[in-house]
Amino acid sequence: MLQIALPILFIIFGIFLKKTNNPGFRSSKKFAIMFIILGISTLVARFITLYLKSK
To answer: Where are the transmembrane segments (predicted)?
Structure first.
């Protein structure tokens, strides 16, 4: 469950960083794309491993 929930949290946090206007997060906006890509790639890899284990 953690292997699926954590990438979803990365994606949500990346979207939050991209959309926020808070001045405290202004220096972290460049990491938004990295968190989104990391979350998507980890989620896809997890689904691939689940599919391969089921065969």
So the answer is: 33-52
How far, CA to CA in Å, does 20 sit from each of 9, 25, 29, 34, 40? 16, 7, 9, 16, 20
How far is residue 38 CA from its own chain's centroid?
A: 5
pLDDT digits (tens, 9 = 90+) for 9-31: 999 999 999 998 888 887 887 88
Q: Quick one: how many helices (H) and strands (E) in the chain?
A: 2, 0
Alpha helices in 2-31 (DSSP H): 2-19
Query: Is residue 7 very low, low, confident or very high in pLDDT (cuts 50, 70, 90)?
Result: very high
Residue 10 lies in domain: 1-54
d(CA 3, CA 7) in angstroms, rounded, equals: 7
Domain count, the chain: 1
